[in-house]
């Protein structure tokens, strides 16, 4: 007997390329992994992507790999996207005879007619004061996360930390939440086009923090730790990538007050090849964020042999395991000591490099894709 086919639609109307951060990286790489995987015996999963116009130019490979339906919106208006999810999306999904609709952006539209699978990346809007989301978006998410979780047939999330918070805060059964962690693929490493050392004035040892300057990313702890190292006589830089957020002004105020503003290289968004180079040449990654649903840059750094110092907070210990140094987010002396260790203890640093690379073996996009397909089948009643 031929196994039943399952037609899954993926709602990507929330995904404005270059705007939504780590959730974009996770979602697009996961869909790419589904395109690359060899389906199991008898497996018949058909995927249709529902996307915004800018998605087509940003992800031509995904558009080519899957049936793609383009919504006539640029994504600039949150209100227009929400309205399209409750109208255009539902009509388009019906026309395509979608059987399970995967809402990959954390919420389900008020109106729905198709069984839903929901991805919740984290519960930052509910758990964190001063969330990175704007006030209107945060209010919307606070209002919609709970009802969306309860209406979904199944929920997927990235870490055990987030699964536990979903169960505790949103009141859903634990077996309704499946883990689909991100992966790491060494083949994605890219080379820079030029010489980053010259282009970015990296004339001495440096630590890297790749994160938008949202307040919860806690850049000031990294700056204060840098100042401690300089006081101790270390000639070192702090390299910051990612666009400016609401914590940008405070970052520079602290840096100037401590006299280390000249030791910070604020690069903004950099090409992928340059970021990969920075991972490979940094003395280490510092990641003092107070809240992470996962922390993909930590995994990327580990995969490229960049030793990691991360905050002992939320999901980060789950990602780092025993392969990095964990420090309380606001323990400035602890951060300075850990950074000094990477600068001066070659044996410890070499061990962390080896442990980091070994750790990433546990995270593979193929396994992530398999887990998501299993979630699709379960949501569609054919698991």
What is the strand and helix layout of this fold?
Blueprint: E1 6-11, H1 22-36, E2 45-52, H2 53-58, H3 60-65, E3 67-71, H4 78-85, H5 88-95, E4 100-103, E5 116-119, H6 124-127, H7 135-151, E6 154-157, H8 160-170, E7 177-179, H9 196-199, E8 205-210, H10 219-231, E9 236-241, H11 248-258, E10 264-268, H12 272-281, E11 284-287, H13 296-303, E12 308-311, H14 316-320, E13 325-327, H15 332-344, H16 346-360, H17 365-379
Parallel strand pairs: 1-2, 1-4, 2-3, 4-5, 5-6, 6-7, 8-9, 8-11, 9-10, 11-12, 12-13
Q: Please, could you describe this protein's structure?
A:
It is a single chain. The mean pLDDT is 91. Helix 1 (22-36) links the parallel strand 1 (6-11) and strand 2. This protein has 17 helices and 13 strands. The strands form 2 sheets. Strands 3-2-1-4-5-6-7 form a 7-stranded parallel beta sheet, sandwiched between helices. A 6-stranded parallel beta sheet has the order 10-9-8-11-12-13, sandwiched between helices. It is α/β, with parallel strands linked by helices. The protein has 2 domains: 6-183 and 364-379, 3-Layer(aba) Sandwich (Rossmann fold), CATH 3.40.50; 187-360, 3-Layer(aba) Sandwich (Rossmann fold).
